[in-house]
What does this fold into?
Amino acid sequence: RKEVEQDPGPFNVPEGATVAFNCTYSNSASQSFFWYRQDCRKEPKLLMSVYSSGNEDGRFTAQLNRASQYISLLIRDSKLSDSATYLCVVYRGSYIPTFGRGTSLIVHP
Amino acid sequence: DAGVIQSPRHEVTEMGQEVTLRCKPISGHDYLFWYRQTMMRGLELLIYFNNNVPIDDSGMPEDRFSAKMPNASFSTLKIQPSEPRDSAVYFCASSFSVNEQFFGPGTRLTVL
It folds into this structure.
């Protein structure tokens, strides 16, 4: 099993739709989790951290399920500008980040 | 702050040549990371530094790759000799402790 796994997609959704991505991790000792967004031919940028109790930032909600070892990202009311690749990051050990391969989202009119 | 600066932005070289990628992290950040991104393998961590000291280089593919951080404001990733399979986008990122990583724009390397 890979250390961090994501469904590559693409997820093709209409504007206004709600879409959710999951990211599974294999190391139960992982402690820190983040979601990054990467636009085509650009660098990754932090979207949001993932807290144990779950957290929300506008239309975006991130959650952590330690028992099942996955994190999720929910996007409500999708916008055309949300089209991008979403990367999850899991930190293992003292400070070693492992990125997932990313999930591609395409929002169409 | 100008953010993480990488140079060159594009590099095209021939197999066997030495390639040096450069990175200037954000001032005050104590961690620096080098990543490689390809379609096949995604974003892979090559090596990271804490306070200029290499901490984990287990992601470095082989001895042809080396990285240095002579001071807090500069790091290099060197490939010698380069091979076509090294073609990728190489990102440098910096952060303050276990927080948001700020990525540079990347160096797109093509080895012919």
Observations:
- Residues 81 and 107 of chain A are 8 Å apart (CA to CA).
- The interface with chain B takes residues 32, 34, 42-46, 49, 87, 91, 95-102 of chain A (CB under 8 Å).
- DSSP finds no helices and eleven strands in chain A.
- The first strand of chain A starts at residue 4 and ends at 6.
